[in-house]
Design a protein that fits this description.
Layout (H helix, E strand, L loop, with lengths): L18 E2 L5 E5 L7 H4 L7 H12 L20 E5 L12 H17 L5 E5 L1 H15 L15 E4 L8 E6 L4 H4 L6 H15 L6
Parallel strand pairs: 2-3, 2-4, 4-6
Antiparallel strand pairs: 1-3, 5-6
Length: 208
């Protein structure tokens, strides 16, 4: 359902692609496009509060050219980072079904194959964390730690995203949703610390 503030805007109503630097060393994985953010603007984490939190942190980390994201034509560019999501359409109540995630997996896999310089993956929330682990299991199930690593803010493990290639670092981070940021579950220093760690492990601190 459209919000009254956007009743005159024409929504895309179709899947939202990933966005960022094709030479990225850091891959950020979200849950799904926001119904009134990415779905409305056509770009991941753009046009809502979650996006402003995320892009503000990326800007402070030297990975984004500006701290806010309002539209696809706002001039924002990412340097050394790429943003995608486990699901490509906004699910009811932000809870994609297993079937929806399975149908979106092929697009997720293809992006990972194209982003062959990625060294660090930041999973924004538990669903994104699980999506990355499922990708790793499809590529090299034997390489996954046992028991399977559980999501937590600041969690860290190593996963193989491309069979035959070195493992990459997977970092867990609370999603910058209003539910987390308005309650203080996720603070700006917490988000900054995760991106600082990602920058260090990716060797991209001086990128851009």
């Amino acid at each position: 359902m459209r919000r009254r503030a956007y009743r005159d805007e024409e929504y895309w109503g179709r899947p939202v692609p990933g966005f960022g630097d094709r030479e990225a060393r850091i891959l950020l994985v979200g849950l799904a496009p926001g119904a009134h953010g990415a779905h409305r603007t056509g770009r991941m984490f753009t046009g809502d509060d979650s996006g402003n939190w995320l892009y503000g942190a990326l800007h402070r980390a030297g990975l984004a050219s500006r701290p806010t994201a309002s539209s696809r034509d706002d001039g924002l560019r990412l340097r050394g980072a790429f943003i995608t999501a486990a699901a490509r359409c906004a699910p009811p109540d932000n809870k994609p079904s297993t079937g929806e995630l399975e149908r979106c997996a092929a697009y997720f896999d293809r992006e990972i194959e194209l982003l062959d310089r990625v060294r660090v993956v930041v999973a924004l929330g538990g669903i994104a964390w699980s999506a990355v682990l499922r990708r790793a299991a499809r590529e090299d199930a034997a390489s996954l730690a046992r028991p399977r690593p559980r999501f937590a803010h600041g969690a860290r493990t190593r996963v193989v995203l491309r069979n035959g290639k070195p493992p990459v670092t997977l970092l867990g981070c609370y999603h910058p949703s209003r539910q987390n940021t308005n309650t203080g579950r996720l603070t700006r220093p917490m988000l900054d610390a995760i991106l600082d760690r990602a920058n260090e492990r990716a060797g991209s601190r001086d990128a851009g």
